[in-house]
Amino acid sequence: MTKTNREVVDWMHKLVHEGAEMKLDSREVRPGDIFCAIPGTKSDGRAFIRVAAARGAAGVIYEADGTPQGEHYPVASLAVSHLASRLGEIAALFYGDASAGMTGVAVTGTNGKTTSTFWLGQLLTKLGAPAAVIGTVGVFFNGKKIPAPHLTTPDAVTLESLYARLAHEGAKAFAVEASSVGLEQGRLAGSHFRVGIFTNLSRDHLDYHHTMEAYADAKEILFRWPGLGAAVLNAEDPLSARFAATAKAHGIPVWTTGREGKGEALREASGAAHALDAFDCRSTGRGMAFTLRFEGETREVQLPAVGLFNVENALEVIAAMLALGFSLDDVVRGVAALEPPPGRMQPVYSEGMPLGVVDFCHTPDALQKALESLAPGVHARGGKLWTVFGCGGDRDPGKRPIMGAIAAKLSDHVIVTSDNPRSEDPESIVREVAAGAACAENVRIVTDRREAIHEAILEAAPEDLVLVAGKGHESEQILKDGPHHFLDAEVVREALNERRTREL
After folding, report:
1. Cα–Cα distance list, 196 to 29, 275, 295 (Å)
2. Please, are residues 267 and 290 in contact by the beta-carbon 8 Å criterion?
3. H helical segments located in 14-57
4. Is residue 341 part of a domain?
5. What CATH number corresponds to the domain at position 66?
6. Fewest Cβ atoms nearer than 10 Å: which of 49, 242, 378, 418?
7. Higher pLDDT residue, 408 or 149?
8. Cα gap 425→403, rounded to integer Å
């Protein structure tokens, strides 16, 4: 007879003492832990049960389907049918279902997830709900980074362990990036969310999803999430109309956001509960300003971040905060003090030198938006816009020429370089990227990323801006022989120092 999730957890609890963990990787098992053995895309965890036992596992739960009848292991073990799809809820029960006691917000979309979660974390904390941030850049709480796997959305076991730790340390809320892969693979199963946010959808992860329709289907999972209290949807993306219908069909209130009345238009068309719109969006010396309109009220908003795409991110963050019950005036005041996450439009200054900007934009849409947001300000002060970027190996090759064409069209100077080539030949990748520029005179190839950044900084005029795109916060460059330390912001600073030394 198949055991319920509660029965599985009761069985585990009888074997362990306080402080025991659930582990998916046998190499991480400590004496007294529970090892969870499930088939994966690269290996089958059941092949490592004896390794986990030798490391002192108190017990093992393993996928029953496909395991030979009568298999015996040298450790207390329990076969569980459909374990992979049930693991999130089992882990939640094992760790005390900590996310149920916190205010959780999940953000999905191709671009904007990291910025939105960081801003949510700042606002929630400022307004009395100490919040953790979980996503691409890592896990942050109370001003410190917490060790965690390097995944946009960690696995369900890791997430539930994190929630328990964060709650113990005083977290009352969390904002998590819900990647399409994470949603489809059930990594968020067992998590409780008050609000789900959709930022946008553009070409990415097609090496995994294969089609844009499948990619959209994965994002849509969030908007039928059990217990979700509100869906916040960006009306600038046409997919939001579909997600609004999905949310409404599941009894989830919908908030729409947009620029110049698009939020209100989608609200009327979809029957959404609320709409926020930004009017008169304009650049300022510190970022962007706009007039916020919400249910007959208006507020002037100062946003310390550049680009219309960041206005869209800010609108959704504001809507989420309102959906959680915070006051409009408190939220607007908080927005004026927001700070960007590492590697997201991160400026690297040096007096009298070109301005370096490091950004994670690694999709065609994100690169286009970044360049369109930076170009007007640079050209207004008589400068040129330089772009240094490449595309990752072992990932969707179809976007390479597309991004090359975008960079050539929207930049004054382009240096195509290596990103994370992984197992591919870096020279082949840069040629594919440059091919999209159709031999444009403003494009050159410098395959070595450090050399490319130095070349741009050394050649640029003081009034120019050099965008170093694609890797953002990443502290390693992944080559065929493995990862090597490489942080774009450090290399930009290094190049600025070299230029200053040369000019002395």
Report:
1. 34, 15, 21
2. no
3. 49-54
4. no
5. 3.40.1390.10
6. 242
7. 408
8. 18
DSSP output for 225-261:
-TT--EEEEETTSTHHHHHHHHHHHTT--EEEEEETT
| Alpha carbon distance 358, 232 (integer Å) | 28
Q: For residue 201, what are the CA distances in angstroms to 220, 245, 262, 419?
A: 11, 17, 17, 22
Binding-site residues for meso-2,6-diaminopimelate, in ranges, read 395, 419-422, 470, 474
pLDDT at position 227 is 97
| Tally of CB atoms within 10 A around 365 | 21
Q: Is 166 inside any structural domain?
A: yes
pLDDT band at 285 (very low <50, low <70, confident <90, very high): low
**What is the C-alpha to C-alpha distance for residues 487 and 77, in angstroms, rounded to an integer?**
44
Domain presence at residue 272:
yes
For residues 27 and 55, what is the distance between their CA atoms, to the nearest angstrom?
8
pLDDT tens by residue, 306-330: 888 999 999 999 999 999 999 999 9
Q: Which three-class secondary structure state does DSSP give residue 459?
A: helix
Answer yes or no: is 340 within a domain: no
Q: Which residues sit in the known binding site for ATP?
A: 109-115
For range 244-269, the mean pLDDT: 98
In this predicted model, what pLDDT tens digit does every residue of 11-26 receive, in sequence order? 999 999 999 999 999 9
Please indicate, yes or no, whether residues 320 and 218 belong to a single structural domain of this protein: yes
Closest by alpha carbon to 88, among 151, 36, 20, 46? Answer: 36
Contact 400, 392 (CB under 8 A): no
Q: Which residues sit in the known binding site?
A: 24, 26, 109-115, 152-153, 179, 185, 187, 395, 419-422, 470, 474
For residue 26, give the DSSP letter.
G
> Based on the structure, what is the number of domains in the chain?
3
pLDDT at 210 over 80: no
CA distance 180 to 214: 10
Domain range for 281: 98-335
pTM: 0.84
Backbone torsions φ then ψ of 169, nearest 5 degrees = -85, 0
State both tokens at 321: 């905060």
